Amino acid sequence: MALPTSLRTSATPPELELIASQQLIEIVPLIAMEKTAFILGAYGPLRPPIKASVPLWMAVNLKLKKKCHIIAPPWLNVEFLQNRLNEETGNKVFSKMPFRFAEIAKILLDVAPDDLESPDKIRSLLKDLREARQAKCRDGLAVLDRGETSLSNLCAMEINEIRPFFIHAKSIITQLYREEAQDLQEDSQGMTMS
Length: 194
What we know:
Elements: H1 13-20, E1 24-29, E2 36-38, E3 41-43, E4 52-55, H2 56-64, E5 68-70, H3 78-90, H4 101-111, H5 119-142, H6 156-193
Antiparallel strand pairs: 1-4, 1-5, 2-3
Helix pairs in contact: 1-4, 2-4, 3-5
Domain GINS subunit: 75-171
Organism: Marasmius oreades
Domain DNA replication complex GINS protein PSF2 N-terminal: 12-71
């Protein structure tokens, strides 16, 4: 989401993708590699054709060098996404999705579409799912009040997008309630004095 600099109080989408790249994902290595230590942990050994779990950033690096095939997460397929889209459009609550699904899906569709089944259909379903979820976010934000607001099952990207508006709106609502309470207190003090 493109926001003016003055409203950019949240992480940018590329920053969220960087954070998501720490998630573990399965690959089928095409090369042998000994266990390798990195700052956040050691990964390997890699032995073709045995599956291995590595961080997404490592899988992307190996994929770009044509040294592995990435195995799509179980939620990144047409059937799962179609079911979630049906849930999303049929219910008022958000369907349960992985917290970083938007970022991971974008990375995998950009880097490894050949490792995904029906990448064009997946892109289309993700776009429809995103639009349905954004409509629910707008509906939820339209009824903001001073009380508790519940938008459960939002993903990282969605939280990041609504955070600036939400914080600003909540501060205005709080200020209005304070002013109203102060006016009522002044009115009640004026009545007791007369």
